[in-house]
């Protein structure tokens, strides 16, 4: 991935920041897979991405693969995703723990276009059967958002067969050279309020940026609240409760991308 989720076509692991949630008991981590590209000597390299799968164990058991919901299955020109651009392929919540591998399953409509405008089918036999497998060995922490950027090296991945005969429509093979880069890209803020019946609106305002970023959620019926996908920074957290309860403000709340900051209990009485 050069965002990610999940070829220098940053397979969707370059997460689009996870949203807010008032479900404080979700006990999940978020993973996104992105596709990105490192350019080669072509005007287009189009991959027909049909599935993105992850493997959550350290074995090669085929039953361990899980298919992620894709934003759009189909053709991606990896050369569109250079200079920091990427395509979000998939995004899903997962139980905390280890994810060992990621796999891309390609369809049959893959091709390259050379600089002179000639189009050639791109043969990808293994990608259409067992898929393109990559080791990622990522440990997912509850409520933290991760991206998996798949950095596809076009120059090394497209191999010319035989003597380079331009009339040979099977001239090019795909032997993918891909880096999988896993990064924790956002943390979170959680806590609880009393009384539990208050269900206040909770605003997290990032004071370390200009203009300030604001995220919001509500406490649930148990009094718990959780803001997910919170970028690293310093925040002011404001609680807006119905009368006769009081509004409360907490300042100087530090958030990192690798953990969820726990505010503990906030008394609104």
From TrEMBL:
Segment forming the signal sequence: 1-18
Record's protein name: DUF4382 domain-containing protein
UniProt keyword annotations, A-Z: Signal
SUPFAM superfamilies: Starch-binding domain-like (SSF49452)
Pfam family, one: DUF4382
The UniProt record lists the keyword GTP-binding: no
MF terms (GO), sorted A to Z: carbohydrate binding
UniProt KW Signal keyword: yes
Domain DUF4382: 29-175
Taxonomic source organism: Hymenobacter aerilatus
């Amino acid at each position: 991935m050069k965002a990610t989720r999940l070829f220098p076509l940053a397979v969707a692991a370059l997460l689009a920041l996870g949203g807010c949630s008032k479900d404080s008991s979700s006990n999940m981590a978020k993973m996104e897979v992105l596709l990105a590209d490192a350019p080669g000597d072509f005007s287009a390299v189009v991959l027909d991405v049909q599935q993105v799968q992850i493997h959550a164990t350290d074995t090669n058991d085929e039953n361990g693969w899980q298919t992620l919901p894709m934003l759009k299955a189909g053709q991606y020109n990896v050369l569109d995703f250079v200079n920091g651009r990427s395509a979000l392929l998939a995004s899903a919540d997962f139980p905390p723990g280890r994810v060992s591998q990621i796999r891309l399953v390609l369809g049959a409509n893959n091709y390259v276009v050379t600089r002179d405008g000639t189009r050639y089918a791109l043969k990808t036999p293994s990608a259409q059967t067992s898929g393109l497998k990559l080791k990622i060995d990522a440990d997912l922490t509850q409520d933290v958002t991760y991206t998996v950027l798949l950095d596809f090296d076009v120059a090394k991945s497209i191999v010319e067969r035989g003597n380079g005969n331009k009339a040979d429509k099977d001239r090019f093979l795909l032997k993918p050279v891909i880096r999988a880069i896993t990064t924790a890209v956002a943390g979170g803020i959680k806590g609880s309020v009393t009384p539990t019946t208050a269900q206040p609106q909770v605003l997290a305002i990032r004071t370390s940026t200009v203009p300030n970023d604001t995220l919001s959620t509500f406490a649930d019926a148990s009094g718990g609240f959780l803001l997910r996908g919170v970028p690293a920074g310093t925040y002011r957290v404001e609680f807006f409760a119905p009368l006769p309860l009081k509004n409360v403000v907490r300042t100087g709340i530090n958030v990192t991308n690798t953990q969820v900051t726990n505010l503990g209990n906030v008394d609104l009485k």
